[in-house]
Amino acid sequence: MRKVKLVRAAAxxxxxxxxxxVRHNWVLxxxxxxxxxxxxxxxxxxxxxxxxxxPLDASIRDYVVRPWPKxxxxxxxxxxxxxxxxxRLVVNRTAAQKYWGQLECTVQDVRRPPGDDDHVIIGPKxxxxxxxxxxxxxxxxxxxxxxxxxxxxxxxxxxxxxVPAQQAKRSREAAKEGRLNVIVLALxxxxxxxxxxxLPLSHEYITNELQGVVxxxxxxxxxxxxxxxxxxxxxxxxxxxxxxxxxxxxxTPAGYSDELPATWRDFSAAGHVTMFAEDDAAITxxxxxxxxxxxxxxxxxxxxxxxxxxxxxxxxxDSRCYGHIPKFRFLFDYMERFLGKMHAENRAHFSFTFLSHxxxxxxxxxxxxxxxxxxxxxxxxxxxxxxxxxxxxxxDHGNRFDSxxxxxxxxxxxxxxxxxxxxxPALDHFRPSLKANAxxxxxxxxxxxxxxxxxxxxxxxxxxxxxxxxKGLSLFRPIPADRSCFDIGIPSVYxxxxxxxxxxxxxxxxLAARLLEHLNAFIHATDPEGRCAxxxxxxxxDAQKLLPxxxxxxxxxxxVHFRVTxxxxxxxxxxxxxxxxxxxxxxxxxxDVNRINRYRTWW
Length: 603
Ligand SMILES: *[C@@H]1O[C@H](CO)[C@@H](O)[C@H](O)[C@H]1NC(C)=O
Description:
This protein is α+β, with helices and mostly antiparallel strands. 29% of the residues lie in helices and 21% in strands. It has a 7-stranded mixed beta sheet with strand order 9-17-16-8-15-11-12, with helices on both faces. The site of 2-acetamido-2-deoxy-beta-D-glucopyranose has 4 residues, from helix 2.
């Protein structure tokens, strides 16, 4: 009797749980079917369908301003000093005669204090006699008119000094072994589309003359420069689980970044001479809201130069100048001198050059350097340094603040940075894969793997290793086309694979209300005393439903996303949020909510 009862009970439980399972699956399936109706437009949607827009599409043409005012530094001051062929700092006596009084020109060494990335030590003033060669790496120069001592001239020199002793022999050996160099030139906030429209000469030169392959599916993995360049440089995802908290909250590093396992370390360990240069000292990748590096991260590190230049007065109408020289020139020249020296001395090298101040705020100003950039690339090609170097010309993400950001194309390109891969003849066998991968969804994690292949001499047709980091695959070998945003670290907020449907006003209003609730809860939590005003909805400016491609969607873990953009009072901010809804829960805000208009007016 007992046995029968037990069996009956067991059967009952089984039936119940089977029923629960059936119901569970039914709920999931219903939710899935409700949103994923078969495509009406005949698109099979099996894979990520990459957005493909014309850089000069009619819908955004009004945002593109041409021509942009050329950089004019010549009117700032007469060029009074120069370095002669023996690297002696000389006052140009002919130019000096233009002054009524007598001139006194002085030079000051710039040094980096130990363990401090935010200050510089500026040495005592030495009067320039023209007799001594310029010894120090960085120096600043000033000329005053006598007897008034009125400052009439200010500039600086960034020299590429001799290779540090510990790397001098090794870098020659590494080159002799045939190790390839890596040259990275990055432009802040530069999308693929904006590079094509603002820098057409350079783009044309890269793709035609240098045979560079431009990645059409490259998507950002985080909001700002830091969140994208950390994965590119280290394979770690900023702010995610594999990253230790000491590297910050995702968008900014916490303190010092010395322990970041950046590829420059791998290259240095393999004997390469390394260089890292960024222009805009206030907002550099590892210093913005953080402390940078205790010790210089690379053998050549340009930051002290920019800090010192920022301390000079630099009277100029044009904020793009230091004295009579455009700021970008100091960066490009330093990079070129570094590469020239390494090439002439037969050394293996790695360099990461990042230009920020011309493209951080708006999409148009960068166009003024198109021919300079092309010229730089032409000279690099002519020098022969590209014959044994991998060259990456890239952005980090697209523009985040300019008014184009409020258009459909602007939103897409904010997520899709430029990346041109130029391979030397020794890597020609990777060209077919590179070209195929240009059409596939990729992220900075793939960029990291590609650079690591060079660092680790993993350059055969078959990879020695699946990956060096956490998520990516090298661009050198075929990448499966069925990868999803999630697979390669692209948060759903920045995913571009969605099929989008415009939402009816009532649905949009409900989602906007949820977004506001979320934001006000956040404001209240960070400001319990209530000093900040609660946000009020002014208008819903945009709302879409975002559906994954059928190839990567599955009913078991299916979720639908919504993107809503609202304008709020009293700040006038445009805020773009993403909400996620699955079979079990109502829409909830996920990931970053982005402010997509500027906090202040710049231009
Ligand atoms: C010195 O200044 C004169 C007059 O400004 C200029 O023509 C000349 O090119 C300068 N020389 C050098 C070496 O810079």
